[in-house]
Amino acid sequence: MRYAHLGATPRIHPDAVVAPTAVISGDVVVGAGCQVLHGAVITAEGGAVTLAENVIVMENALVRATVTDPVHIGPHVLVGPLASVSGARVDEEVFLATGTRVFNGAHIGARSEVRINAVVHLRTVLPPETVVPIGWVAVGEPLRILPPERAEQIEQAQRELDFPGYVFGLDRETPDLMVQLTERYGRSLARHADDREVD
Predict the structure, then answer these.
(1) Which residues form a coiled coil (predicted)?
(2) Residue 40's domain spans which residues?
(3) In CATH, what number is assigned to the domain containing residue 170?
(4) Containing H/E element for 57?
(5) Which residues pair with 144 in a beta bridge?
(6) Which of 22, 120, 125, 145 allows an S-S link to 40, with CB 3.0 to 4.6 Å?
(7) Is the pTM higher than 0.85?
């Protein structure tokens, strides 16, 4: 299904194949030879999403752009089932395995691999040909790739990256952080009330 959102309509190359249960919303370009499989969601939440040629977005994956962080996915990239790419740049020939998470402002260099359930955190830059092992976390600058058992180091790096400040414009120390976050984000998402399905 395709939806017009914020005045923009998805543009899908005639050689691309989009499953009937996939959702593509707003300022999205799907290039030649792309495959978007069942249950995938590609949504432009105020910023553009561009899939270059021969990108595969597998079942139930999410690709989301934001006002501050558009998404660009280069040619010959595989976005695995249940993977999530939010506001990131992914260069050519990258493999994002099942369940990976790539966060706002991240940049994944060419021919990198982010393996099953691994995370590329906020504003993290992976040089070309970097491998993030299964379940590990790539975080910060300079880049650190940490196993999940190094939770204290991951937490420290996350605090420095300031997810609530960068993504939502809110101070992490705000006493009612989740109240403000959900109300602000809810107002933004409510803009979908005016979406309309397009052929």
Answers:
(1) none
(2) 2-198
(3) 2.160.10.10
(4) strand 56-57
(5) 139
(6) 22
(7) yes
